[in-house]
Amino acid sequence: MTFLYPRLLRPNALSLAKQYRELSILDLQSRAATSDESAVYVATGGTRLESSRLQVLRDMVVDLAKESGFPGPPAKDQRTAFDLRLARLLHSQMDIAPAEAASGDVWAFLAVILLPDVAYWRYPPSSEGVLRDRFLGGDLTRHVFGRMWWRAHFVYSPEEPDPYAALSVLGESEFDQIYARRTTLGGRPQLIKSILRVWREIEIRELSDRDILRDFLKRLLRLDPFLVYEALDDFALDTELRAVARETIVGLLISKGYLREAAERRAREVLPRF
């Protein structure tokens, strides 16, 4: 069963977020709440999450943050560890539908009302840009909590011993690109998992990961009208995607001055044919 979460509309969220910039983490702990008079719910109907469940969620996230040094400033490895554990926790415990999780206002409520201390601890608001990116939910690929729920959602494989094992494969820049194409890719978990399996194999120092993934995804989207990915088993799908990835590597290497023969040879080294 999924629930409706309270939403904090952008003007109210921005006003509170600006005020909170002047407060310490300890002050923000005292401001944390499970409700706010300005919060609203989507009007489509559904079961609203009870305040007691929100409190449980808050307690779990705070306990997780404490494992990474909260309320003290976290080191880089602590931030990384917190993010990965947070993704698992949010996706497994929130009972929220993807349509609801696509609302920035839901995540604004979590960052500004329910968990302002943890949000500001993870991303100290050094500028209004940080506030908008990390707390308000205008861009969920940047939101302190929303981006981690979506990363977990994309990699979630309930049939695996560890359903979230692929989280470490999908970094923030890779997540940005897949999320931007979620209308096409997000509803196709088999395709997402195959992308991640192939992506895990690619190591090529001559090219940036971002350029490879961008071109790779563009090629997949161009193939979409002509290939029914869902009709393929995992082996066949991986084989198809590996061929597309090799085409990506060849194309990018040629754009950097490689001759086609050399580019094709390098692509086969990175992704050998079965």
Task: List low-confidence stretches.
Answer: none
Strand content: under 5%
What is the N-to-C order of secondary-structure elements (H for helix, E for strand)?
A: HHHHHHHHHHHHHHH
Total domain units: 2
Approximate helicity band = 55-70%
What's the short story on this structure?
By secondary structure, the protein is mainly α.
What does this structure look like?
- InterPro entries: DUF6339 (IPR045920).
- Pfam families: DUF6339.
- With 274 residues, the protein is an all-alpha fold.
- The protein has two domains: 156 residues, no CATH class; 102 residues, no CATH class.
- Helix content is 61%, strand content 0%.
- It is built from 15 helices and no strands.
- It is elongated, with a radius of gyration of 21 Å.
Question: Which helices and strands occur, and which strands form pairs?
Answer:
Layout: H1 10-20, H2 25-31, H3 51-66, H4 76-93, H5 98-101, H6 104-114, H7 116-122, H8 128-136, H9 146-155, H10 172-180, H11 182-185, H12 189-201, H13 209-223, H14 234-255, H15 260-270
Helix pairs in contact: 1-6, 1-8, 2-7, 3-4, 4-9, 6-7, 10-13, 12-14, 13-14, 14-15
